[in-house]
Protein 1
Amino acid sequence: MMTNSQIATLLRHVAASYTIQNEAKFRFQILAYQKAADAIESSPTEIKDYIASNSLDSLPGIGESMKKYLEELIETGKVSHFEVILKDMPEAFFPLLDIPSFGPKKAFKLVSYFKFKDKNTVLDELIEKARNNEIASIEGFGEKSQEDIIQAITEFHQGVNKNSRMVLPFAQEIADKMLDYLKKSSAVEKVYTLGSLRRQKETIGDVDIAVASLHPKEVIEHFCAYPYKDRIIERGEASASLLISGGKHIDLMVQPPDRFGSLLQHFTGSKEHNVKLREFALKKGLSLSEYGIKRKGSDTVDAYSTEESFYSALGLSYIEPEIRENIGEIDLAEKNNLPKLITLNDIKGDFHLHSNYPIEPSHDMGRNSMEEMVENAISLGYQYMGFSEHNPSVSKHTSPQTALLLEKRYKKIEQINEKYKKDIRVYSLLEVDILSNGDIAIDIIAFDYLDAFLVSIHSSFSMPRDKMTERILKGLSHPKAKILSHPTTRLIGKRPGIDVDWDKVFDFCHKNNKAMEINSFPQRLDLPDSLVRQAKTHGVKFMIDTDSHATEHMSLMRYGISVARRAMTTPDDILNSWEYNKFNDWLLNS
DNA sequence: GCCGTTTTCGGCCCGACTGTTTTCAGTCG
């Protein structure tokens, strides 16, 4: 079985081989293979599943030929066309491509020069050659590049065991620290976080920052003097880049205020959005860059101080950063048909809250009392909320004991409703395990003490797809089971999601008025944005919840909102943005 | 090799920075 990332690597190897064989001749094949590799790598759906559903060409950059190659790859484990392209490349060539600052040319030159043979030792051998001063004399290399090779491989070895991408709050913290630092310089007029952090992608590689200033030199000077840097990676007139601890980069770009709009647009990306946007502009005879817009045949570059004016000059309505991912947003902007995305202000309740109310749960309890969480919800302006502690543990309780615990809790929630009735409606919910056979962890005699419940998977994560799908559908089949909580169960960077026939689950949810949760915990963000998009096409509705185990977690809602925005959802799609009566009707009567 | 409101051919984003050069090639985003 090949993973998407392994397939992407294979395609990049093909592109690199083409580059060595004849870059000019294969120029556009090289681009095509790289584009296909990007698309596959960033796709959450396995290639074999695309093939199974015959939808491979829905991926941008996968056409007729690539489709055939991938089918051959999944079926036989190899592609004869690729083998012909790759057969003359030494195997020691490929590991070098993983090293930052190495491309195909440099890698091939060194491997050929030293006649490296072994892919397992080539990195060490190359460092050895550099230390022995055998590289500086090669044509096109020198003392500095010899040193750079040692540094690049060493840093690669240090960083390779770490998770290479950060979860959002971690990256935000790095960015905020730098923003505070930059604001100390009087040369800085405006400063923004851009790149994937501005687009609120679920994980962040590098932190990108833009500054508006009439004195770029001073700004770069100040930036490069950042006390928490490991070293300066590059330093130019309008941009610079720092390495900070953990192998992360902070990249900076500077433009004067009157060109800040095009800089924001350029540096926010995504790369795929920008490429598409520039192709779109070219057809209108316009060439785009961070400096502005150049009309064909003209030498002047028109400046735009805001992104709105930049997009408007292309005949497009403003595109929110979260959806700049080449997912059809440019077409929609051209037709002035972009959806009005959900915002944090639209949210009227949180439905996945763990208090410390003692019901001897199967998993971790919350830290705060029900009252504390209710008061926090009121301060957030919510109109309704639900407590959904984990069910009492199955092994330690008989079914009547569980019912008794839930009855007591129900009375407690009734008291709370009485106390806070002017401000908020509190529902009695529960997060109920779906056991491995599809049964749920509470008995029907407990249902009376619940307005509704969430179901979720907390065990037996690796089951065959058919069995797992059946398990989820069975768990959701109870009338009061309304929400599938953290549906994929993934933990970013730690645990992949479960294997499920999502189309089947989404169809079931749509037909039976069940909701998918968008869990806001930054390590979860589950459903992921791409599956939210997929679910939306089935007509599925969503609950954005925090899964809070303490009052301060309740502010994580913003990350779930980001996921929902990236999936182009509107308030109509998000149940907990609905007015109370409509929402109540869905929860209790649908 | 991909793609389409200039559609089945003939295009394909745009520029910064570095090191090794003396005008440019390679890499990156």
Protein 2
Amino acid sequence: MWWMMIWPCASPCPSSSRQTVGTARKVTKDEEIFAEGDRAAYLYKVVSGAVRTFKLLSGGRHQIDAFHLPGDIFGIESGSEHRFNAEALGDATIIVYRRCSLEILASRDQAFANQVISSMMCSLEREQDHMLLLGRKHALEKIATFLLVLSGRLPKGGQINLPMSRIDIADHQGLAIETVSRSLTQLERKGIIEVPSYRRCIVLRDRAALQRLEA
Amino acid sequence: MWWMMIWPCASPCPSSSRQTVGTARKVTKDEEIFAEGDRAAYLYKVVSGAVRTFKLLSGGRHQIDAFHLPGDIFGIESGSEHRFNAEALGDATIIVYRRCSLEILASRDQAFANQVISSMMCSLEREQDHMLLLGRKHALEKIATFLLVLSGRLPKGGQINLPMSRIDIADHQGLAIETVSRSLTQLERKGIIEVPSYRRCIVLRDRAALQRLEA
DNA sequence: CGTGTTATTGACTTCATTCAAATTAGGTGG
DNA sequence: CCACCTAATTTGAATGAAGTCAATAACACG
């Protein structure tokens, strides 16, 4: 069955082990992990740092479909080629797994198979919510949503340490970088967030207000 | 495993049969098939007609994530609740299948299991392309893309018989209905398409020009 | 302590939306 | 078959939200 091949499998591993083994790889800021059209021979898990997957359009336009944080699996394809580009947001460590069938994967390492499917489902749901955002939300609503979603995925605490630049946020929310900046300023003026001098940190002062703005 | 339940299974079927059986259901224009928050106990296949799945936002805003045409399966969820609303675009016939595990499904009706997975993968890829469109394409590019994608999914021929209204197109492309109308007029003025007096029909006069506009 | 990159701010423009009106199509009942 | 009615679509004019261009400011880094 063709679809049996869409799932990853364990890479060759020592005799009796049922553990899935991958190879660790360190990547640096903006380093390409794979590109659109590349043969999809592997899939990837973020260990530390973060990764963006995106598509390109004429005129240098980008659309980042997702940010991948530690624990996330990315690069799963149903076809034989990657349909996105993937790059590290900053220095990052990822594990690379050889792709093969779900059957083999499931028989060798059920836990990893579950991780893969679970991760895929989460991505799918996030992407569906993201369509609503891209199609129908205003700039301020987009940024409010972005902050809330990200704060739910990152280690808890009153503040968010953005792993990505303003440009990345813009390319994810379908906005111009200036609009991202202006929206953040607007939220800060309203006392909803606070942006310390280190601009990649954002303190959530009033989560309820953000939720009201979300849409 | 929780994820085992995300897949549908055959509904109870006669003794020895390994065929998946569903119940046919006829729905009329704008009839609700399921709503956001409903328990996701079934999944659905379009036989004739077409279906929209969408999310709602404050202020009466809609985002249609997908149109489902004959052969398409929709309503698959990883959780226990539907995350979208589904309504018929016009009179339609759908088959309703009781949901259960992939294991059972695969053992009873491999062909149907493949159909389900294949359909899900297609939807996923379409949705990913759609994010690029929503986030980064201009009105005219959106409409050009829409026409090309739809013409590739509908029975071939020089013309497209739109199963949906202009409002539905607008809510799918993240545009206002007036912008949809104006973009179509613009394409017609350029001689790229032709819109007969029956406005739900669109004749593609110059597919190459559309592809150039796509982005 | 410069220096280059990243982010912010301001001024202006533009594309798409909104509001309003006109037109067309399709259905209904005489 | 026609006149009417309602809903869908198109068109026009004005507004507005976000984009672009340009300049400045603030960091982070060497």
